[in-house]
Amino acid sequence: MVVWLEANDPFPPVDEALGASSEAPGLLAAGLDLSAHRLLAAYRQGIFPWYSQGQPVLWWSPDPRMVLRPENFVVSHNFRKLLRRVLRDDAWEIRLDADFAAVMQACAQAPRRGQDGTWITPAIIAAYRALHDAGLAHSVETFYEGERVGGLYGVSLGRMFFGESMFARRTDASKIALAALVAFARAHAIEVIDCQQSTAHLASLGGGEIPRQAFLMHVQKAVIAPAPVWRLDKQILGALAYGNAADKAHEVSR
Fold first, then answer.
1. Which Pfam family would be a valid example here (predicted)?
2. pLDDT at position 113, please?
3. Distances in Å between the alpha carbon of 208 and those of 171, 188, 236?
4. How far apart are CA 152 and CA 176, in angstroms?
């Protein structure tokens, strides 16, 4: 049975979420409150909202949980070559929080295989913009020749990043943004990026499932750790682009 939340009600324990044999595995609660306060309480407990226009706000905590550990991010030979081109070419830029709302809008409009419509409703955009205004949500944006061609956004609490959505208008543009986020995470001891639900695409990038309890134990520690200073530019891709000093020396000598 799914709990209905009134405005001041706490979330139920996450182990009360619907199980794998149900029609909605991981569904924990429903309600109408989508305030910034409610969102923060949710993320600190490993819970996230996901619903469609016309539905109440549905709160989820799936088991297992899909995560990406930055050290496991897959950089193929071809993608490494692309990152090197990005570093050399002034037409490419990586920007942080250039236009958070525009990234959310682009994610909402991006076509998704097997999905009709979007969960990024106007209420969702308003709620996450409030977190962004408080410095608790960020967008990583890829630009080519001055045009935003890809990006992602998510919630940042302490040393934990909860990924929400991404979009691309040019091949691999969103993956470049993710690579920048991964490089930043590696440099600032962010050990886990939450991906929420399992997909083949995330698995191909190095994501994997972990038990919900293990995820929650990590979240409890990570969200209270000192937050890093969020600064990004495309040079942060260097370690991923070159892999090691010998590769970089060879590339520079060409």
1. Leu_Phe_trans
2. 57
3. 24, 21, 24
4. 10
